[in-house]
């Protein structure tokens, strides 16, 4: 490997890091007297290429409340939660289930096999295994 290759590799690596930071997802909330809707829940799931049910289950576990997904309204649940708190839950989900642990890209695939969940990275082929949520 010559010096130029090394520099190129370095640049590509840096690009990967920037790429993961570019995934800025905004939550579009509708806050009612008793209910909150994450109106763009479906498109957020689509954006990160994850199953609605899977992301919903994660929120359910973190908030310890009953949540409903209604296609026309989004993710609906009772209670009062700050936007930042819901964002934090989403970010934790992304860290655990979307971003590759090795290269930090979000070009990953989640596959579920029994009680095991596997995140495989399309960019570097790194695999992370979890017990099911
Ligand atoms: Zn990777």
Provide the succession of SSEs: HEEHHEEHEEE
Strand residue content? 15-25%
Write down the overall mean pLDDT. Answer: 86
Radius of gyration: 17 Å
User: What hetero molecules are in the model?
Assistant: zinc ion
- Give the name of the CATH architecture of the largest domain: 2-Layer Sandwich
Overall shape: it is: elongated
Give me the count of strands: 7
Descriptive report:
By secondary structure, the chain is of the alpha+beta class. The chain folds into 2 domains: 29-98, 2-Layer Sandwich (Alpha-Beta Plaits), CATH 3.30.70; 101-133, no CATH class. Helices cover 40% and strands 25% of the residues. The chain has helices spanning 3-21, 41-47, 52-63, 83-97, and strands spanning 29-31, 35-38, 67-70, 74-78, 108-113, 116-121, 127-131. The strands form 2 sheets. It has a 4-stranded antiparallel beta sheet with strand order 1-2-4-3, with helices on one face. It has a 3-stranded antiparallel beta sheet with strand order 5-6-7, with no helix packed on it. The longest helix is centred in the first third of the chain and has 19 residues, at 3-21. The termini are far apart. 12% of the residues are buried. Residues 14-21 have low confidence and may be disordered. Bound molecules: zinc ion. Zinc ion binds next to loops.
